[in-house]
Amino acid sequence: MNRKLTAGVIAGLLLTPTAIANAQENDAQPRVMTQTEQVAPVMTVAANTAKEQIIARLGKLSENSTDDEMAIAKEDLIIVKNSSDFDFTEEELIEAKYNYIKEQRRLLGELKTIGDSINAISYTSKNFLQEVTNAKDKYEKFLGNAQQEKSYLYVQDQFRQVIVEALENGEEALVSAIRGTTLQYGYDETGRNNYFKGKGFDIAKLVKLENDATAVNGATDTLDAFVTNANADYETVLNALNAITVAYDVLTPDQKKAVAAYHPADATITPYKQYTDVQAKVGAASKVAISIADLEKKKPDDFKTATNFTSAVAAIEKSYNALDETLQKWVTNYDTFKPYQEAADISKRIAALRVSSDEAYRTEVGELDTKYKALTEKAKEFVKNVADLEQATTNIAAAKSIEALIAAIENESNKVEAIQKAREAYDASSNHKDVKKIVNNLATLVQLEKDYQASLKVEKLITELDPASTTFEKKTLAAYAAFEKLTENEQKFVKEAEQLKLFYKYAEASKQANALKPTASDYQTKLAEVKVSIAHLDATGNAAKAALDAIKVQLDAKIEALENEDVAVAAVITQIDALNGSSKLVEDMLAARTAYEALPTSAAKKRVTNIKILTDLEKSHKTVVNVVSLFEKLDTSAKNYLSKAKSAYTAYNKLAAADQVYVQNYNGLNDIVKVTEVVVQINALNPSKKTYKDDVKAAADAYTALGVTLQEQVVNYTDLTKAQGYVDTAKAFDDRILALANENPETFVSTIATLSADYKAMDKNAKKLVEQAKALTTYEKDNKAVIKVIQMIDALNPTSKDYTKKVLAARKAYNALDEVAQKRVTNYANLTAVEDVASLIGLIASLKPTSKTFLEDLKTARELYEGLPEEKKQAIINYDALVAAENEQTTAAGVIALIVLTEEQDADYLTKLMNARVAYDQLSSNQKKLVTNIKDLTTREKAVKPILNVMVQINELDPEAKNFVSKVNSVRKAYDKLTKDQKKYIDNIDVLLKYEPISNVVNLISKLKSSSSTFLQETSRARSLYDALPTDMQQYVTNYYLLEAAEASILGAGNVMQMITDLPSIDPKQYVKRVQEIRAAYNALPKDQQRAVQNYKVLQDQEKVVKPVIKVVEDIDRLLTAKDMNSQYQKILKAYDKLDGDQRRYVYNDQLLLSLDNVIKVYNNIAKLNPKDKFYFGMVEAVRKEYDSLNSIDKQRISNYSILLEAEKGMADVKKVVEMIAALSSTSSSYIEDVANAVAAYKTLDAKVRSQVINEDVLKQAEKDVATVLKVVQAIGSIDPDSSNFEKKVLDAEKSYSALSLEQQDLVYNYRVLEEYLKMIQ
Description:
mainly alpha, disordered N terminus, single chain, 72% helix, 75 helices
């Protein structure tokens, strides 16, 4: 056939429209030529047409052809080989093309498999290095060379040779027609790599993996060397750690993941995990050493206060003590730290000094002074509060000087002058508040001063009068009454008598004004008289004129207010009358009710004669009015405030929507309900309930859960504190009863008496909680007669009306005892000491500063006391009350001075405020009334509150919290509201300054909106602010993915499409986050760009894939905080098992889940511990070993560790009881006491573990034996030789003794007494 014609026909076929070509293919496809057809004579044109069709089909054949097309091509090849229409070159080209395409399809399948295996390689796989090596080997084998049969390069070269040979023979047209677009054989390496990439194999990824594997190999070699030398000395370990760190730090993030996952087959944990564990330990020791070195570098001036220094030392001590013994040895400079510890100890002890007249205070100051002087000169400089020690030493010396003056008064001839001298020295002491507290014989001086004439007492009362004080009226009337009681001569000594008389006029007028009652029949007459009295008041020429004039103004105002009451009543009546024609009835009705309730007194309300009109209208609008009334009557100071608030809120919710409009003060009720719930919980506390202690704790927890503002509204909080007090009191009392088992026999009876008295005096609620009450009752019965006398003596109460009668009764009961029993009355001296002074004690006890006869009674008590001999004076047990009554003003003055000190806002300002508050709270109610500047203290305390609030808010900042930005903004606003002086006390402001840039970035990112006109600028600004953050702070930008999404959205839909396209190449551990980022980027696109994302369906499909993955990831994150870790763990495993292979690869925190086997095992074993189990203690010890085998991190994950500790404590207690029982010996002289101790110890055991006491039966038998023996002992002890039934009791006792076993008889310690009695009756 002519070559040119063939080429022209082929070219013509190639240019034929697609429809014709398809039709030809359809005609040719179903035909399978038979041998007969091949040899049948046909027309030349028909033959040429078939040949051209075969060549055309072969020209279209490529590696992308379908299986059907390959089958047709195979049949065409058979036709070609059996046809004479094709020459040798044509046949050779067609066969080469078919074979090439067939092999190319096979090779591309292999290539896709290799590509998939590469994509499956994870940097977090423990076999990463081997997987990379395997992938590399497979690819090299696949590629091969031109000589390696079946390899990719061999197949390409074979086809290239056929093509080149045909071209060299001038068959360009034929080659072009048959070859078609199959040109891969001629690709260079770059073209080949790009071709492979389109077929599912990315050579760049393999190269990256190879490079990463090479880098990882170096780091893993270093890790292997470290593991080999893990037990070497400190320097070797440290050098090995540094080598690993150097090798690790230069790696990329992916390479670091591979290093962390590297896990040799023979290793129990990964080398990297072992490295990080050791590094953490070394870091902890190094941190302590560095802290010590830093402390050594600091100068004393670097610490502003002693607290700063002691805190720094305490922090180092805490860190050091937290190290184990090996790590502590690694802190090589610890010895240099000891001088600082000594200095810090002295500083803390100085700070803890509390001024007192006790000898212990002086001893402590002396010891501190000695220890301070023993410090090195450098260490002394760090004791920042040494001035306090020096001041304390000076104060003690001054106090001793005053004490000497007071002691010398007794021997002075001129005692008055001596008293004045001692008093002047006491009052003139430089640092008076501390020196005065140290003086220990002040009572002596006060006692001597009381010997002055009665006129001095009145004079003192007058000098204390202050017209500006709220107690002026009361004190003036009291002073005048005292003045009136003086004799005429005594009154002459009162130098301020005229002043008193003037003050009395004002006080009497005030008294009369306060006594006015509008409901009285002579009210108007009395009102007129008081007005006249007030009008005659005149303080001209008096030094207190301004204050007295103020009293007069107040009295005038009071009278005016009373006169204005009529006006107010008339106004209410008018307001009620106007209701009949009101268009706003409910509002006016409420206003009328408010006006009525606002009347100052109940008497004024009674004068509203038309109140029935208002009440009738309220009845007709009862529901609405009741609710409004409930709200408006709420009074936070009322006892039933909270219950009424809750009722009001309930009633409000029941109203119809239209009626709720009338209720104008609904705000705030929700908080009241919350508070009410806590109040109800507190009110429900019942000591009779078995769950009382748990109820108290629950109420306390509920109270704590309230905010500070709401806590202030819990009006019965004191009941909660009382309840806690009951629990603590009962616990302490139980401990005292249990301690009786070890009580000294000499003090045994007195101790029981004390306990009995304390128990009777105990609050009934606390009594209900005392678990050992029955044990105390048993003791009391055994010592009943003696205890009764002791209790009678202890019960003597000088304040009791029948005190004398009780003293006589105690004496009678004592005399009724026998001689032996009388010796057991350990408090008999108390009875003899008070018999002749009982009346005086009662008189002193009845002294009350508020009593009108207080001064006269005080004088009488003093005279009676002075009439007693010196030894009798010591028996006045409440003498301090006599002295205290005269010292109230002095005590109050000390508090006033403390408050004055708070005027200066220095470094100790907060401490001074606290000291003043503590001192004030310790005053009695009468003393508190004398503190005139208490408002200054409360005002300053309020000013300090914002400072503390800001410091607490800064400390609570957490950059990982969801509300981090709002918290930062809130703190900044609170800080900015502080004054300049307040801000200087904020010592943690650096924390806020560190977190504000992070907050700004997070806030800016959260506000990015693609619809905003400034979206581009704001995104750029957010990127700049983020990049400006320190690297370690960037991790806290929790919405960084939104910034990336915003940046991605700027690039448009094309970028999002590329991101979706690149999903298969994403690291599986980053896959979930990447899908979320793509979603965020897509959502940030404008609607028109979203529609342009052609592969959006792929994103939706992948979101469905990762949805269960996200649930598993979140559950794993919450696993360690789950209430039931095992249940949560099993739940996660089930969910994890449901994931397919790809989904599991996406669970980026699965290492945590898969590493918790040992943790869950220990957790479950702890949960299974059951005291009823026969092998309970063995299980406890086994669980302890399992727990100790965990590393430090896994130990912290055992959330029920406290159960193990409790079990171990129970085990220790049981072992102790078992040992006590095993040690019991009936031959021991203390056997009975030993049995009692063992029984007491057994009863203190938790009921759940008592079954573990293996020798419990021995104890019960011993307890039974002792009880039997004690009955015989008591029978012998109760025998009275003078009794008429003496002989019968002796015989009964002898019979009971004979019934005992020999071992029991040896325990009857008073048998000799019985023997003597038997001799007497024989």
